[in-house]
Amino acid sequence: MIPNRDNFRTEHLQTFRRELFSGIMSHPRVGFLLVVIALLSSATAQADWPHLGGNSMVNGLVPSTGPQSAALVWQRTNIQTLISWSPTVSGDRIFWVRQTQASNPVTGPGDSVVYCLSLATGATLWTFDCPFQAGDWTTVVYGARGDRVYVGRGGNGSASSAPVYCLDAANGSVVWTSDAEVSTGSYDGIVFLENGDPIFAGNTEMRRLRANDGTTVWFTTRTCSASGNCGPARDGDAIYLDEVGSGGQRISRFSATTGQRLYSGPVMPGFLCQNSPFCAPGGLVFYLRTSNSGSLDQMYAFRDTGSAIELLWNVPAGHEPFARHAITPDGGVTMMSLEGKLQIRDQITGALRAESAGSIRASHGFTSSLTVVDAQGRVFHNNSHGAGGGTADIRVFNPAMQQQWSLAIAGVSQGGPVLTANGSLVVSSTGSVRRYWTPSCSTGDLNCDGAVNGSDLSLLLAAWGAGGPSDLNGDGVVSGADLTILLGLWG
Prior knowledge:
Radius of gyration: 21 Å
């Protein structure tokens, strides 16, 4: 049994995780390993990139190791788009929307076609022209799980809603069409439950659909302050949303089983916000409340006790609408400072651990961080220009926030970074879709530090039940067989 998230102390879990990832633990005993597996299973990241944020906690942490350099494997330059939307990855398939019509709502077919590309080669496997009705918006790839991919034309908050189309990931054929419409748009995102049911949120509502037929499990209302980036984050049965409170914003917890609103946290002062919450193990919830309102622009950290949402800390933050920050494997969380530096702060205390030497703000002034962290704790950052154009910088930092390498790509906007199970970096721009990848290290050396030790063990356990680099025997799932191999390579 996984320990009840609401009953153990967050401080103990965070300390335990830091010890694992620093590699200071001794050779494990079998009984101890079972406890470790149970504790870390609540923080297991998805092996692929199933939707915005990369996993159910939408915290951008992946169990694979990203490229060590800007080694380009392939690029497609013949499928240009007006806005570079985020790729979704499942197995060997990339799902992505090519938008060719600027006006919204759309007026005709072919305006925003879904492309399925091969991760290995970049070749087009199939396309899908999503049906539209008057008032619909640009097609959205909501997410992918297993052999299903979910698309639709919801958007613009409550002003536009549309059905969800569940497609066969292998060929793009329609498996089912939802019985109700959703208002979830390109910037919002969804989450999946363990049984595959997707949960959709817009700025006035949230809906859970059955993965097998698209019927509604439950529907509830909510109150996001503005359209865009009103997506959910999930930790077990807890669904977290940002909502309007008296004098500002607040984080509310809903039940994933019933859709019931359970309770809300303290108010974060400030008019509106266009960011979504994200989580970390131990009932931690983070929220970047910024609206270019001076001292009210803050990064907040909360703890869900099981009966209330309590404030842990808040610090001044740079203004970033549509931003997505991430957590690190050793208990950190990223954010942008008032000076524009990319920082890592302690999840529990808010103490500054590391920051970039210089500003990561975009040269054109408007910055929306899109952040991913790999299994080594390396930070992949895009200083996105929101939905606009301009040249974006994809920078890669080590855990000490020292820059390792970078790319300057025109028109990236929302197009990544995305890290996949095999360690590929996928980035889309208005002019291209690209895959970067470098070979992995020796067997068992999951963090590429030249030794097989406690650090590698912690990465394997974090990927338990999934795939990726920790799947040492290549059977598609990380299990006891892989653990046996790793222990045999210890040292």
